[in-house]
Specification:
With 677 residues, this protein is α/β, with parallel strands linked by helices. The protein is built from 21 helices and 18 strands. It has three domains: 16-129, Hemocyanin, N-terminal domain (Up-down Bundle), CATH 1.20.1370; 179-403, Di-copper center containing domain from catechol oxidase (di-copper center containing domain from catechol oxidase, Orthogonal Bundle); 411-448 and 461-670, Hemocyanin, C-terminal domain (Immunoglobulin-like), CATH 2.60.40.1520. Bound molecules: CU2-O2 cluster (CUO).
Length: 677
């Protein structure tokens, strides 16, 4: 993975180098002969690469080495699917390694890194390997371009042990004259963007069916992105912005411009900006082998609406498939995204992916200027752009349209007879403060050196500023009048008031509820006290997995990468709650204990629990989604007749409490122990 544009036989670390068969060299290097292949500094470990019969790479080779790669562009998608197939098809680890070495110098580095990551994640013999952070391999997708010149200066002039981290200012992409900039810290957060890249890596929409077909992947596409919107909306409300306006009229100019200020280190084209009031056009780009009209998108959208209202979709043979209460959302997810599991791509098209493309290419829809796509075209960067949320607002609206047709949950389905929640509170750790949460800014460092191909080598750190919160603990008291039994504890939080400071109606508020945690509890007869720490959340990955603690976790010489437990899918812990306001932002915390016998999933697969930090948004590798209820339960449907507020919605096994989120505008240095602030 390291230094993706350098030839593979150049030593990557201090301690190892690949020795490749001569025919693995590209045409440029072949004449230089075998001397090249074992050109190593003293003492480095040589890894001899096995000669295998070479796979047919003609398809993925069509993408230029210096082009950009987008999972949303159909022709790129096919190339990636082919390369994944090649990697997945290698019979053993040695052959896989050999194929990876051979392809690396021939293929586009972005395409290569994506396909290699998917293969490592899905192959049984590499599942123990952990992927390096994409922010380290392609730092140019995550940080300000001015940084790289400074990094070059630092690494050329300053000895390794005297180097200082290069600070990235918090406000580099825009000024507060642009209202949307108030939530730039959310959109541009490193951890959030890494989560999104990893999610799409774990749930590829194309490639061999064996890796695409995962339990409820279409539903998870809906739920994960719905939660991103809920979180973003909450963040907007506490920054005095109205909720996201869905992007529904594609003929209208897009009000929000965005200038990413990212610079591509590896491609010959940079990330183009989008000016205010840009308009979409029909796409006809021979260079990408791609042609579609806005009208195609509209036609597909109308067909999906019609399908939702009739309760059925039509498959490729003209047969009706019911959008049932339990399976409908999963079917729709695959249709809308779309994935290769779509019931009928001819009929329902490829709405979400091509929407990303139309937006990403609105500055050069016909390729006249030889420009390439903007950040909306890459899953590692798309969430930086305000339009991402407006586009997904439209996509989510289609899902909600389907959810609105489903029967409402009855009190019987929501309740848990004999179980009553008698107390819910949350306490900031190491204080006596109850029902107040605290946020502030923190700095963290990322090592850029894997991704920078200039010498001299050695770590070069970039220093980010991101939101952080003081850890807290939930306390829940439950009375059980029955025999000992199990329950699922579901914790959500939502804003209490809308944009006009009026109490929210539940039919609105339900879409704002952000999942904070979900876990199984054992209830004994009588009184039970449940405590749970914010860091244990089932939606997040620990802070250290987003920002590795560089001093403690840098691999010592000889230590293999697999000793890092780096499973990147999961919302970053430092973004678990919204920023709040200085005077305290009013939220409602909600807890529900549901009946475990309705939640339990029978799954005898061993699975892989090491990457199971963020199961709510990412599932568990090689296992079924561990909760039988609809994702988002109990807020995934309209409330029952006569229920207007969350208070009226409650059954005895639920409880709410008012919580205020307070923000202090101070910044703490890296590694400061949070509880002591
Ligand atoms: Cu994750 Cu639009 O699906 O980006």
């Amino acid at each position: 993975f390291d230094r993706p544009t350098e030839p593979v036989f150049v030593p990557k670390g201090d301690n190892e180098v690949f020795v490749v068969p001569e025919e693995y060299l590209t045409d440029r290097f072949k004449p230089l002969g075998s001397g090249l292949t074992d050109r190593v500094g003293g003492g480095a470990k040589k890894i001899t690469v096995k000669k295998i019969s070479l796979p047919d790479l003609s398809l993925p080779m069509q993408l230029d080495r210096r082009a950009k790669f987008s999972l949303f562009i159909p022709s790129h998608r096919k190339m990636a699917a082919r390369l994944i197939e090649v990697f997945m098809g290698m019979r053993n680890l040695e052959d896989f390694e050999s194929a990876a070495v051979y392809t690396r110098d021939r293929l586009n580095p972005h395409l290569y890194t994506y396909a290699l990551s998917v293969a490592i994640y899905h192959r049984p013999d590499t599942k123990d390997l952990n992927l390096p952070s994409l922010a380290e391999i392609f730092p140019d997708k995550f940080m300000d371009k001015s940084l790289f010149a400074r990094a070059r200066e630092e690494s050329n002039l300053v000895e390794i042990n005297q180097r200082e981290p290069i600070e990235i200012p918090r406000d580099y992409t825009a000024s507060d004259l642009d209202h949307e900039h108030r939530v730039a810290y959310f959109r541009e957060d490193l951890g959030i963007n890494l989560h999104h890249w990893h999610w799409h890596l774990v749930y590829p929409h194309d490639g061999p069916r064996s890796i695409v077909q995962k339990d409820r992947r279409g539903e998870l596409f809906y739920y994960m992105h719905q939660q991103v919107l809920a979180r973003f909306n909450m963040e907007r409300l506490c920054n005095n912005l109205a909720r996201v306006k869905r992007f529904i009229n594609w003929r209208e100019p897009i009000e929000e411009g965005y200038f990413p200020k990212l610079d591509s280190l590896t491609a010959s084209r940079n990330w183009p900006p989008r000016f205010n009031n840009s308009k979409l056009s029909d796409i006809y780009r021979e260079i990408d082998n791609m042609k579609f009209d806005i009208q195609d998108l509209e036609r597909w959208r109308d067909r999906v609406f019609a399908a939702i209202h009739s309760g059925t979709v039509v498959d490729g043979d003209g047969k009706f498939v019911e959008l049932s209460e339990s399976r409908g959302i999963d079917i729709l997810g695959n249709i809308l995204e779309s994935s290769v599991l779509s019931t009928n791509r001819n009929m329902y098209g490829d709405i979400h992916n091509l929407g990303h493309v139309a937006i990403a290419l609105c500055h050069d829809p016909e390729g006249k200027h030889l420009e390439t796509f903007s950040i909306m075209g890459d899953t590692a960067t798309a969430m930086r752009d305000p339009i991402f949320y407006r586009w997904h607002g439209f996509i989510d609206d289609l899902f909600q349209e389907h959810k609105n047709t489903l029967p409402r949950y009855t009190t019987q389905q929501l309740g848990y007879s004999g179980v009553r929640v008698t107390l819910l509170e949350v306490q900031t750790d190491k204080t006596q403060i109850k029902n107040k949460l605290f946020t502030f800014w923190q700095q963290s460092d990322v090592d850029l050196s894997r991704g920078l191909d200039f010498t001299p080598r050695g770590p070069v750190l970039a220093r980010f500023t991101h939101l952080q919160h003081r850890p807290f603990t939930y306390k829940i008291m439950v009375e059980n009048t029955g025999s000992p039994r199990m329950g699922t504890c579901r914790i959500f939080m939502a804003p209490k008031f809308d944009e006009r400071s009026l109490p929210m109606l539940l039919r609105d508020q339900k879409n704002f509820f952000v999942e904070l945690d979900k876990f199984t509890v054992n209830l004994k007869t009588g009184k039970n006290t449940i405590t749970r720490k914010s860091a244990e959340s089932s939606v997040t990955i620990p802070f250290e997995k987003t920002f590795r603690n560089l001093d403690n976790q840098r691999p010592a010489a000889g230590v293999q990468l697999e000793q890092f437990n780096y499973c990147g899918c999961g919302w970053p812990q430092h973004m678990l709650i919204c920023k709040g306001t200085s005077e305290g932002y009013a939220c409602q915390l909600f807890v529900m204990i549901s009946d475990f016998k309705d939640d339990r999933v029978e799954d005898n697969n061993q699975g892989d629990n090491r990457c199971a930090d963020a199961v709510s948004y990412c599932g568990i590798r090689n296992k079924m989604y561990p909760d039988k209820r609809s994702m988002g339960f109990p807020f995934d449907r309209q409330p029952r007749e006569g229920v207007d507020t969350i208070e009226q919605f409650l059954t005895p096994n639920m409880r709410i409490v008012d919580v205020a989120v307070h923000h202090t505008n101070t910044t703490v240095r890296p590694g400061v122990i949070l509880e002591d602030n």
